[in-house]
Amino acid sequence: MHRELQRIAGSQLKVMSGHPSFVSRLLAEGSVQLAPASSIALLKSRQLDMALPLGIASEGPVLSVYLGLQREHDDFFEFVKSRQIFLREKANEAKSLHPNEPRRQAKYIWSQVQSDRPAVFTLPGLKLTTASAASSALTRVLMHLWLGADAAHQLMIRAMTTNPSDGGMQTADIRPLELVIGDEALQRRHEFWKVLDLGQIWFELTDLPFVFGLWQTNQQSLPAGVKALLFEAASLAQARMRVEPQIYFPETRPMTADGKAVDLAGYWKVIQYKLSDRHLRALLLYYALYHEISPAPDCDWISERFHRWNQAWQSASLTSH
Predict the structure, then answer these.
(1) Which CATH class is domain 65-206?
(2) Residue 264's Cα: distance from chain center in Å?
(3) What is the mean pLDDT of the chain?
(4) pLDDT reported for residue 73
(5) Residue 172 in this model has a pLDDT that exceeds 80
(6) Are both 2-57+212-320 and 65-206 of the same fold?
(7) Is the pLDDT of residue 155 over 80?
């Protein structure tokens, strides 16, 4: 989408790029007025608002966001597999009891998790990344669902963080689970015994896509012409990535450490830019689940936004067709 936007907009827009956390910071600081920033940023900042129903999402495996596991993590992997079955049952119960009420669904799910006693085993360490706030927040939610509040809290306290620009990783006697995102995730996948794809994990629990990034603005409104440019760029990019992805290949293809070309075409086919009401429902549930483990002192404003976003979403979706 970045390339299409540059081509269509020309000098009308100044386009910048960077890791999701970097882009979110530029937006929060006011250095840029519009960006596909981390989806969790909307829950944490009153200054930001949804610009229009465009973002970065996947329905099922996203391939570029996962927890990387080593052979010594086999107990954890088997535990998560069985735990996912339990959590899916509870999520389905929540939808049945509270249809179209994500906050009540989240409260029900958490109540079931808190009354349950997950299996006890030696927890591995965890290495997070500062490159994606949405992925780190989703990891935190999943750890609470899998492990329960006490164990998850202890794990997150001990979690290490890495900056993708530092070129190195902290060392430990026992290798930790690693949250890996973006190009690094595509290039390093072969290094891990197993991966837990966060897009797939979320889909297993909710039957919904996950929105990693969302076009956001720090302005009161956007010119209609800018919105039209964004929709056109998103439509073209999403279509071309599925039928002729080679036009977006960089001059130098990214390679894995074992000398194989990264399957960019396969990766791009799962990325969604144009979002629907299913994506909105997924966002609301994600926010509601996160709020249960990190409550804000005043969350009424986010509920008011939910209603307004839904109206704007439907309006923008109709005008974009």
Answers:
(1) alpha beta
(2) 19
(3) 82
(4) 94
(5) no
(6) yes
(7) yes
Q: DSSP letters of 238-302?
A: HHHHHH-GGGG--SS--B-TTSPBP-HHHHHTT-EEE--HHHHHHHHHHHHHHHHHS--S--HHH
Write down the CATH number for the domain with range 2-57+212-320: 3.40.190.10
Q: Would you put residue 186 in left (φ > 0), alpha (ψ -120 to 50) or beta?
A: alpha
* Closest to 35 in 3D by CA, of 232, 280, 217: 217
Q: Tokens 């085993």 belong to which residue?
A: 121
Whether residue 248 has pLDDT greater than 60 = yes
70 touches 192 (CB < 8 A): yes
Could you give the CA distance from residue 104 to residue 95 in angstroms, rounded to a whole number? 9
How many Cβ atoms sit within 10 Å of the Cβ of residue 321? Answer: 6
121-142: average pLDDT: 89
Give, in order, the Cα–Cα distances in Å from 105 to each of 92, 93, 137, 290, 310. Answer: 9, 9, 19, 12, 18
Other CB atoms within a 10 A radius of the CB of residue 251 amount to 4
The span from the CA of 32 to the CA of 49, in Å, is: 14
Domain ranges of the chain: 2-57+212-320, 65-206
Do residues 229 and 9 make contact, with C-beta atoms less than 8 angstroms apart? yes
DSSP state of 173: S
Q: Report residue 112 as tokens.
A: 């079931």
Whether 317 has a pLDDT exceeding 60, the answer reads no
> How many Cβ atoms sit within 10 Å of the Cβ of residue 14?
9
* Residue 207: CB atoms within 10 Å: 15
